[in-house]
Design a protein that fits this description.
The protein is of the alpha/beta class. It is built from 22 helices and 21 strands. The longest helix has about 30 residues. It is globular, with a radius of gyration of 32 Å. The two termini are about 30 Å apart. Bound molecules: adenosine-5'-diphosphate and magnesium ion (MG).
Length: about 700
């Protein structure tokens, strides 16, 4: 019986229940799954060759007669000869060796030749045994390329290869075409079964070059279909508050700001206004560097909702940020009739209860608070818009659920982390994206220098001079103290005693280079009140410098802070450095960022060079993606990127774009994938991305 796609791996000849268990450990249970487990590289298996031509290191197939078979302890040694030379086949345990090995039989053995005690041998070869009377195939097996697979301690690459080759012997592979025929034609793709075969045993590099993109495209297409489906369910199937937007509303809102909106802001505001009018719930991601003017855009959107007699909410990741949003908004709304309230965890109970009641009664128009707070407690009377400020935490993009009657609220997520296009087409692929590319005018320049630890003293002396003239500085350290259980130790950073800790650095500066200056210390282990007091002192200009861990990322807006010194800069991802650097350069004055590397050699400086070259967050994010991959960039584990077997969103970007376009076209025409040429993709879709993307009840 030929194997089918859903046949258990166990049924493949030579596998059996024990090995099937090993396969299961790497997630391979069926023949179809095995066939989608592609090699990470290839080696060429020579065709049969004479023993005289075999040299150590070669992967070969040899044919010879068995001279003798011997056991030495567990090992089984089988000596063969082909008239040109001799060679030993060795198995670590007789139980792995084929049956019928005895003097006189003919064997064809495939494996890697090596020298052992000056003798040529092949360890655990793949063999065929031809007993007298068996038909002997005289034809030579030709050379071929075979895969090298990622295995485990138990499951060797060679075991996987053997199982795959066994399946590939079948004349008809149990591989069904998935793609709609018109797409196969349109892009001139090879058939799926042919591509799978080539992926495991490529006839040539050129064939592999044709096979791989086909499978990558298919994988991307399925992923983008899943995304398009989710988007369809989130947006097209839902009704949203239909808000009115008029020139009069636009004018009145713009009048609230003491400046003209920048062209970037105007573009985004128009995109948002169109969403709000559409009758569909907006799900939009607004990207822009810190200070690019996102809050102004968010407030604009809120005011459109409020002009329609509805409520709006702004949610921040921390209380400090919620407070800061609120204070900013207060400036713009002074003297307006907009009724607004700030919800904080530490508020007196009475005040909170009163606030909650007026929100529920519709007596408040605009609510600012932390995400946890607003989602947990608050029932809105008439919520039309939710703004979520994720700052840099975009890996965990939360979809808020609100207790609200009627249509879904519009949803605007703001992030200060520029998201490379590859990611906004995958992880955030179901959101619309708006980008503020250019900051408001009148900002100073940021100069970035990359220096080694040896130059630190010079740097600190120089900075001291500027601090004495009234500028302010951040000094960023990777850890709080020497303790091992430091909660802020960056993931992936190896804990080493040599890491500059914030506490130590603070002490060193106070006693040394910056003696006599006022220097604060800020880190996550401080009590909330202490943190607030320190931040306030820095904002008020009472501190020359703030030594901090990366908490300053989500911290404070201090236009007078113009200098940043980052210790152990090589330990941060580029995106994170970009975030950190965003704390300076917020005022009119020019700023200086010094990245101190503690690594010897040019590698760290080279990796960081892009920081000195540009302040364009998107360029930096792309470089970061290339350096570290999407998992790291987004925060490992929770990054929400479906596991891809063949595709690489960075290197296969063109295919990703193509697949995305095709997928969205398919869903636009056939949103339930009901047509036969689409329907057959549903099982694969569910299998590959169903859990990850939480979707597809369609069809
Ligand atoms: P973000 O939320 O992106 O960090 P903000 O909206 O808080 O940025 O804006 C940063 C600063 O720039 C604020 O001080 C704000 O008043 C100012 N700002 C925003 N938009 C403009 C503009 N169009 N022209 C001048 N200044 C602006
Ligand atoms: Mg902001």
């Amino acid at each position: 019986m030929p194997l089918r796609g859903d046949s258990p791996i166990q049924y493949i000849k030579g596998v059996g229940p024990v090995k099937a268990g090993w396969f299961a450990e790497v997630g391979l249970r069926t023949v179809a799954e095995l066939l989608e487990y592609y090699p990470f590289r290839y080696e060429s298996e020579k065709g049969e060759c004479e023993l005289a031509d075999v040299s150590p290191g070669m992967s070969v197939t040899v044919r010879g007669e068995v001279l003798r078979v011997r056991r030495r302890s567990q090992h089984l040694h089988c000596r063969i000869c082909d008239g040109t030379g001799e060679c030993t086949l060795r198995w670590f345990s007789a139980q792995y060796a084929p049956r019928w090995l005895e003097p006189g039989v003919l064997v064809v053995a495939t494996g890697r030749a090596q020298l052992y005690q000056d003798e040529l041998e092949i360890v655990q070869p793949r063999v065929q045994v031809f007993r007298p009377g068996n038909v002997i195939l005289t034809q030579q097996r030709g050379a071929r390329n075979v895969g090298v697979y990622r295995g485990t301690a138990q499951l060797k690459s060679s075991t996987i290869r053997r199982a795959v080759l066994q399946v590939l012997e079948q004349a008809v592979l149990p591989v069904d075409e998935l793609l709609p025929p018109q797409l196969v034609r349109k892009h001139g793709l090879p058939q799926r079964a042919a591509a799978v075969r080539q992926m495991h045993c490529p006839d040539s590099a050129a064939e592999l070059e044709r096979a791989r993109p086909r499978l990558v495209y298919e994988e991307f297409l399925l992923m983008e279909l899943a995304i398009a489906l989710r988007r369809y369910q989130l947006v097209s199937l839902q009704t949203g508050q239909k808000l009115h937007f008029t020139a009069e509303i636009d004018r009145r809102i713009r009048d609230r700001f003491p400046f003209e909106l920048t062209p970037s802001q105007t573009t985004v505001v128009n995109e948002i206004a169109r969403d709000l009018e559409s009758g569909r719930p907006m799900t939009r991601l607004l990207q822009g560097d810190v200070g690019s003017g996102k809050t102004v855009v968010a407030l604009y959107a809120c005011l459109v909702a409020i002009a329609n007699g509805c409520q709006a909410a702004i949610m921040a990741p921390t209380e400090i940020l919620a407070q800061q949003h609120y204070d900013n908004i207060e400036r713009y709304l002074a003297g307006s009739r907009v009724r607004r309230t700030l919800l904080l965890g530490g508020q007196p109970k009475q005040a909170r209860t009163a606030a909650l009641r007026s929100i529920e009664a519709g007596a408040v128009d605009l609510v600012v608070g932390t995400q946890a707070l607003i989602q947990k407690d608050v029932a809105f009377a008439q919520l039309a818009l939710v703004v979520v400020d994720e700052q840099h935490k975009f890996g965990v993009l939360q979809r808020a659920r609100f207790r609200t009657k009627g249509p879904l609220p519009h949803y605007l997520v703001m992030t200060a982390t520029p998201i490379p296009r590859t990611l906004s087409m995958t992880v955030f692929g179901d959101l619309d994206v708006s980008i503020i590319r250019h900051a408001p005018p009148g900002r100073g320049q940021i100069t970035t220098k990359i220096v080694t630890r040896q130059q630190r003293k010079v740097v600190l002396d120089y900075v001291r001079g500027r601090l004495e003239k009234g500028e302010q500085a951040y000094v960023v350290c990777p850890v709080i103290g020497k303790s091992d259980d430091d909660p802020e130790t960056q993931s992936g950073m190896r804990k080493r005693a040599a890491l500059a800790s914030a506490r130590q650095m603070h002490q060193d500066l106070v006693d040394g280079a910056w003696q006599g200056l006022e220097i604060g210390l800020l880190h996550g282990a401080l009590k909330a009140d202490d943190k607030r007091a320190t931040v306030e002192a820095f904002v008020a200009g009472k501190l020359h410098a703030l030594v901090a861990t990366t908490v300053v990322e989500v911290g404070v807006d201090v236009p007078n802070a113009t200098i940043m010194v980052v210790e152990h800069a090589e330990r941060y991802g580029l995106s994170q450095l970009h975030q950190l650097r965003g704390r300076i350069g917020r005022g009119r004055k020019d700023s200086l960022c010094v990245l101190i590397t503690h690594e010897r050699g040019a590698k760290a400086a080279e990796r960081l060079a892009v920081m000195a070259d540009t302040t364009d967050g998107f360029k930096i994010a792309e470089a970061d993606l290339r350096q570290r991959g999407p998992g790291e960039l987004l925060g490992t584990r929770q990054h929400g990127l479906p596991e891809l077997h063949v595709g690489d969103i960075v290197n296969d970007f063109a295919l990703l774009e193509q697949a995305r376009q095709d997928a969205f076209e398919i869903i636009a025409r056939d949103p339930r994938l009901a047509q036969p040429q689409h329907k057959r993709m549903i099982p694969a879709l569910k299998r590959m991305f169903g859990n990850k993307l939480a979707l597809i009840d369609a069809a």
